[in-house]
Amino acid sequence: MALNNYIDAENAPNYEDMEKQFAVKAVQQMTVYWSLLEKIPGSKLRLTRLDDQILDHFKSEFPEFDPAEEIDEDKMKSKEGKERWRKFAMAYEKGDDKIDDFNFGTMLRKSPKTEYGEKETIFAVRMQFYAVEIARNRAGLNDWIYENAQKDAGKKS
């Protein structure tokens, strides 16, 4: 039996170990990102080599998106929302614009005003994370994380 290079998410069995591995990787990515935001203002952070292109593409495909507002998870995960995001993400599947693990699951804060938390976080694909967080970073909406970390570091020393 030949194995495909991918898993058909629509028909894949629900493997508990696989889910745990996905969860571990998503939490690791979330932790690394938060740590970066504590060390570098988001407005100065680059997440990929294609940040400018991703942001321009995101603005053209989702002109209504306001990075300062809380994400409407129901709208994002509606049938129409999923299709719009799938089209957006697939542009980064291969070629010069390829983003590794572009469709890998990750954690995304609903609002740029909150830390990661159970009620403040949604499961998203990596390209959703990149698009939203690049937009937030460019708008300076994540700089508060760095500022708070610097204040806390000053109190400790």
Secondary structure blueprint with pairings:
Elements: H1 16-39, H2 51-61, H3 73-76, H4 79-90, E1 105-109, E2 121-125, H5 126-138, H6 143-156
Antiparallel strand pairs: 1-2
Helix pairs in contact: 1-6, 2-5
Main location: cytoplasm
Pfam families: PBDC1
Family: Belongs to the PBDC1 family.
Question: How does the overall form come out from the CA principal axes?
Answer: globular
Provide the β-strand percentage band: 5-15%
Q: Could you say what the CATH architecture is?
A: Orthogonal Bundle
List the helices and strands in order: HHHHEEHH
CATH superfamily caption: yst0336 like domain
Mean pLDDT: 88
Extract low-pLDDT stretches. 1-7
Helix content: 40-55%
Number of domains: 1
CATH third-level topology:
yst0336 like fold
Provide the spatial order of strands within the biggest beta sheet: 1-2
The CATH first-level class comes to Mainly Alpha
Summarize the main sheet: 2 strands, antiparallel
Q: Treating each run of at least 4 consecutive H or I residues as one helix, how many helices?
A: 6
Number of strands: 2
Helix/sheet category: mainly alpha
Radius of gyration: 17 Å
What's the quaternary structure here?
Answer: single chain
Cα-to-Cα separation, first versus last residue: 61 Å
Protein name: Protein PBDC1 homolog
Pfam families: PBDC1 (PF04669)
Family: Belongs to the PBDC1 family.
Subcellular location: Cytoplasm
